Amino acid sequence: MARTLIFLQNARRCLLFNGRLNLLFVPSSSASLSKLAGSQNNRRCHATGSRFTRSFCTTSVNLEVSLSHPTFMVWSSNTGVGKTLVSAGLASSILLLETKPSNPLNVQYIKPVQTGFPIDSDSRCVYQKVSEIFHHRRPSRSIFASNHVLKASEPALEGLVGVRTEDCTSGSIDGFRDLGLYEERELRVPGSVHEGSKLMCKTMYAWKQPISPHLAVERESAFVSDSVLLQSLQQNLLFQTREKDAFGKCQLWNIVEIAGGVASPGPSGTLQCDLYRPFRLPGVLVGDGRLGGISGTISAYETLKLRGYDVAAIILEDNGLSNEESLLSYLHNRLPVLVLPAIPRDLSDNLMEWFGKSWDVFGSLHSILVDDYTKRMGRLHEMSKKAGTIFWWPFTQHSLVPEETVTVIDSRSGENFAIHKVKKDSNYEFISHQFDACASWWTQGPDSTLQMELARDMGYATARYGHIMFPENVYEPALHCAELLLLGVGKGWASRVFFSDNGSTSIEISLKMAFRKFASDHALFCPSQLKSVEGTEFKVLALNGSYHGDTLGAMEAQAPSPYTGFLQQPWYSGRGFFLDPPTVFCSNEHWNLCLPQVFLPYKLNGEVPAFSSREEVFCGSRDSSELAGNYSNYIHQQLSLYRGSKNCASIAALIIEPVIHGAGGMHMIDPLFQRVLVRECRNQGIPIIYDEVFTGFWRLGVESAAEFLGCVPDIACFAKLMTGGIVPLSVTLATEAVFDAFKGDSKLMALLHGHSYSAHALGCTAAAKAIQWFKDPHMNPNIIATGNKKLRELWDCEMVSKLSSHSAVKRVVSLGTLCAIELKAEDSGYGSLYAISLVRQLREDGVYMRPLGNVIYLMCGPCTSPQVCYQLLSKVYRRINELGASAGA
Amino acid sequence: MARTLIFLQNARRCLLFNGRLNLLFVPSSSASLSKLAGSQNNRRCHATGSRFTRSFCTTSVNLEVSLSHPTFMVWSSNTGVGKTLVSAGLASSILLLETKPSNPLNVQYIKPVQTGFPIDSDSRCVYQKVSEIFHHRRPSRSIFASNHVLKASEPALEGLVGVRTEDCTSGSIDGFRDLGLYEERELRVPGSVHEGSKLMCKTMYAWKQPISPHLAVERESAFVSDSVLLQSLQQNLLFQTREKDAFGKCQLWNIVEIAGGVASPGPSGTLQCDLYRPFRLPGVLVGDGRLGGISGTISAYETLKLRGYDVAAIILEDNGLSNEESLLSYLHNRLPVLVLPAIPRDLSDNLMEWFGKSWDVFGSLHSILVDDYTKRMGRLHEMSKKAGTIFWWPFTQHSLVPEETVTVIDSRSGENFAIHKVKKDSNYEFISHQFDACASWWTQGPDSTLQMELARDMGYATARYGHIMFPENVYEPALHCAELLLLGVGKGWASRVFFSDNGSTSIEISLKMAFRKFASDHALFCPSQLKSVEGTEFKVLALNGSYHGDTLGAMEAQAPSPYTGFLQQPWYSGRGFFLDPPTVFCSNEHWNLCLPQVFLPYKLNGEVPAFSSREEVFCGSRDSSELAGNYSNYIHQQLSLYRGSKNCASIAALIIEPVIHGAGGMHMIDPLFQRVLVRECRNQGIPIIYDEVFTGFWRLGVESAAEFLGCVPDIACFAKLMTGGIVPLSVTLATEAVFDAFKGDSKLMALLHGHSYSAHALGCTAAAKAIQWFKDPHMNPNIIATGNKKLRELWDCEMVSKLSSHSAVKRVVSLGTLCAIELKAEDSGYGSLYAISLVRQLREDGVYMRPLGNVIYLMCGPCTSPQVCYQLLSKVYRRINELGASAGA
């Protein structure tokens, strides 16, 4: 009825094992592991030694996880809790389920990492147990079963009877032989007219020693990297499933079983919960029914949640301790907990009686997972429609967003979104990665390692603090964050930290600070009466094209634009005096200066020169250039003209975005101009505000963009990337002199501005972690630690040059984590829909961008590897080339 | 050299055990546990059964944890990993450390929960092992050692030789005998002139069966509640330490060892990591050095972090697997990991050789813990000073906040702060709980259970999503949160959800929405040109005393006040038409109506009546009263007068805080007046905004305060309590008609307002959890589920009545989670410093309040037990009484 055939795939000759099953099969209990416990040595380790240094996270951008059929991970809280028996029971339940004759169910079981091979082989155990169960239960449908071991270390081969190393197809790669050990059998139902089911069991990588994979790798010199392992797993998962309805919906199940416990290291040492995270497969957690098992099971569950996994069910062995009751109470009944009968400890037991007693439990597990899969898919299908019906997206004309253009984002892993996609022709559904190249509105910094660190930190901060009100109180995260800010972006000038919630509020606060300072310095209010001198009116000095936020106070500090009109905010009046700034950009392979019209009267001797390099733009020696003098004259004259005009309002603050105008179109402002402007205002007693909401925290390659200007502000605002991009938090930093302007005997003299969540613990905790992480060369491989810390060049200079001379490109600005490209286009306003087709194509390439009119940009995190940036830039270049070609055609 | 004496404390006679140590001592390996694994039954549990229902969290408000000496928990990842040996080794290292002659070190070892007693007795093991180590190491100082078992279940007594039940001092309470089993010995150093050290080992509660405590409780009918256990532990920890320098600094160590793993259930079934959380003691985690131990150790560590615990070190047994290397890599070297030699498995081994080989490791552990304690104390000492130096607190005149009044908040547990305190006379330092009665600026809702749930959710949301940009995208937390909002506070009217970051931004957005709707309805702009009709100017209709936030746009919608003057925001002009509202309050045991001056022309027939009850205030039948007609006439007339005045601006929005003006002084506005106002505005085509930032989500006892008014808005704003008080998030809900006013062909017609963290995943996840939790009668015991859901009365009516008639009290407003009390005072303005002394006294009583001028208030969470509210109210009443008495004196 069954035949066993073992051969080396593509090998010169076949070898028969003659069904020596006992040799290969050992129940996956802890029996074989206990041998290890004896080995002892007196090594001591004390954590004061060498510092750990990270290399880049290299998440695969081309990841694809099929959703056309259920795929579940089998996790466990510990070794020896019966994980493989659960896999076997689940697989049997699926395969032996009575379905319609036309719909056989097929199961692929994958064990990516197997140690202790061939004594331990979980794929063979599943293969074998399903066969035995088949014989016991006598179903109406045949099954074609196979077991396949793909790669094994050389020592692991030694344990195989009749297999010699030279029998393997290929030579050893990274210490592995491409084994292709294969066996199959047909479990035939005599006379059955139904189409047969398939069971495909696979072991991807096998090592001989029954120890943790990362140790086996070392001891057997057989290494597989995370990315190769994931690619291989992905290939196996996609096997036969990309084809149109290869197995139909729900007709194939994938079961992926981990090695050891949830946080056991994989071959590279990466914890398995981290290793498999890019797939984020839903899972079954095999808990521990023994004494102490409640704790282990709950902890394992929490470890999975702390990696963003969904657990569909917990299943555990009954040891007479009712562990499931504590688990249900902990879970508030939100998750099913299933209990299996006690597993016989007798190794000679073939477990058929046990599987018989467990049959209903596996049936329940099976239907729970069907339910889970069905619900998940149902939700994914309705999300885009629901979103369009009940969301009110910011900055979005809903009429222009049809349902099919809504992006359904399943999760994020470091810089990558995991997006739900449907291939229109085949209805093939899958999860695909896209690089978040707009850094989610410029907030994002973490790679996947930092994201998981922050996850634990956010859990900790919530559990320790929740939120605690700030005024007159102190708690660690707020203090620590404030200290780090003053040692970092505020170093050398700031001494006070005012917390608020977002960039816009931090700007409103900065203006209030500046106005008070100005009023105080210029005797424009009477402290004893807490009133202003009659007729006092304040304006801000700002640059055209700068942007400071959407609340009214912040809007008033920017020049009129489509953001500020009557349609948007009828109360906007534009309380500023706005200057046109000179800009810098790369075009035709050179960094050039562009002077606005207003500079025509200030003629230079000859042409405005191109810079020899981008570095020259920031060079301090430019201070003594003629251009610097002209800038100074221009600014001086403009301020005089303003004062002489009928407008009698005082300019009570200067506000600038240092170096880059973000929302205004990614324009690089000549830093020399901003420096001269700051000096001029300082001379005139006008408080200076840097809006570093966009530019701060390595966005431009240095921690504070003030470093580029070479002069410090009185007040500065930070937000976005400050928390690593996890939660909203902002700060307004100020000098002690600014702070002093609010001192007095009365509370009414104080700055009466505050938000409920001022200095909330989660935000401060995230900020403290991100601030330290990004600047630590041990954590951020991009940090160049010699001299003033800065990021290495992330955007390949040659590629930037090439882009800048492309016929479709007007200008390029690359600095720090930003590479912005302005396309040549007739309509260059904000409302432009240009570049949208380009962006759409790039999304197909796995790059998620959002255009700013005819400006497209790539934005990575401070830890993103230059290799990834290179790939992004290449993709953009290729698409621009195509665009140019099709435009030319 | 040593003597052993065992007696029943306070008992009629003593019993000698004759040193039968072997009877009582079994090494705490897993040997005795393996017996259990055999028990089997085939019970199945499937989580579709009865729903779990919670009762109130009753955290002790009078909690006190001494900081005058180090106290550490010993946690472990699992049973059988050598936790008690670590305790013994650490205790020995402390006791045998060579210190100055005058400074003996003392150790108290506490095992709160012991099962398997007397076969297993960890306190006896520590007592015994330290004694043996003493004899081996021959230190220069004597030790007086004792072991004390306080309470044991009756079955546990049976195992004790020579102890009969009737020998115990008292009868059985909750199934326990007050055992007082005691033994002591003097470990004498002949001829030593040094003062001796003390070792006090204690077992608090003991059960016979070697199973999880929650099962032993059941099987031996001996129950101890969480609060009794914590109180008892607190008493033991404070033993001899409250006295002035009882042991001097660092001269006493407390070691508290848990039972089983970190998340093993305690006697009540509460997981131990949750049970001991109110103390939040720092800990040592004893990890698992076996195969699979990396996973278990990391998971246990994460479980502790998810409860807000600090771990000072991880220590684990060497099993030749180098587990410590993986741990160090996971921890990025931030935490020391110590490795102990393998523990002999031979039960006859007295372990002295092992302790000898481990001596240096325990020495390292000891100094790591000294360091940890010293650093923690150093930080606590400097925090208040540093805070005053670098923070810029909102709404705070720093000159009025001397260092000693700054509150150092170590953590939060549910509604309670854990605060660092120093007794001035004795320098005794401790952590004390204070009820956060200002709900941290009205944001707080969670009890300790919900807080820990949110901690796991925040970890999950960070790991799964981090933050994902919102426009044109959809991801689960945002969609789920939006759906819940429309099914809850927006039910029956709202169809769109616009997310932003805080109350103030949600108000700015609501105004933009209202203005566009008004302009659209009244043809005040020309869609084709995207411009306004010439001369259009918009104002809002609002109530005097209402407050809507601190950003300029929100400020413009409120009447002039100290918040809005030139000193605070020179750009404020007050773009509103402000009406004086009638208010309602309880005074002299009655709910009364107070009509402002403006109502004098609208004379009522006779006096304004008092209400028979608070419920009558909200009664719909008042609509047909004469008062309703007068309200209507007044409003109508005012609007006509406004239109007739020279001011030609249109009233384009009504904005109100329904029922309660929060920041304006906790005034209850007559809901009839607000209802009439809303109806009048609706008739006149003025869009209606409810500012529910303060009033929403059960703050007033109903999910939305709109329920009290009986009429719905066009737009409503929510924030604060929406996320349960964990992270900032706000929403502006709107009707489809409002949304439609932004539709068009051009992006420029869209609402061009947005914040980087719009609909951030953490906020939406927290909101979804909190929204569901608060309204679920299974989770929130305060929910009355009959009819429209509402909270039960939290503030004892009799007590409120009594307060309202107190001579020092002007008025009381109690509604939902709020109980506000206005004190009689000359100076009732915001700047008033009145009531500050009252608040200071209440902080001594464990109640953290912040006054609003002469208004003090208590604010609890939607899940807070009415018993706790009663205690709070009693404390306030007592202090007000004292205040009255001293004022009268």
Structure report:
Two copies of one chain form a homodimer. In chain A, 32% of the residues lie in helices and 20% in strands. In chain A, helix 20 links the parallel strand 27 (688-691) and strand 28. Chains A and B meet through helix 9, helix 10, strand 12, helix 11 and strand 13 of A and helix 2, helix 9, helix 10, strand 12 and helix 11 of B. Strand 16 (473-474) of chain A pairs parallel with strand 13 of chain B, so a sheet runs across the interface.
Q: What does the oligomeric state look like here?
A: homodimer
Biggest sheet overview of chain A = 11 strands, mixed
Apparent shape of chain A: elongated
| Secondary structure: helix percent of chain A | 25-40%
Largest interface chains and counts: A-B, 213 and 215 residues
Radius of gyration of chain A: 32 Å
Low-confidence stretches of chain A: 1-52, 242-247
Number of strands of chain A: 35
Output the number of helix runs of chain A.
25
Structural class of chain A: alpha/beta
Question: What percentage of the residues of chain A does DSSP assign to strands (E)?
Answer: 15-25%
Mean pLDDT of chain A: 88
- What is the first-to-last residue Cα distance of chain A? 66 Å
Outline of this structure?
The structure is a homodimer of 889-residue chains. Chain A is α/β, with parallel strands linked by helices and 889 residues long.
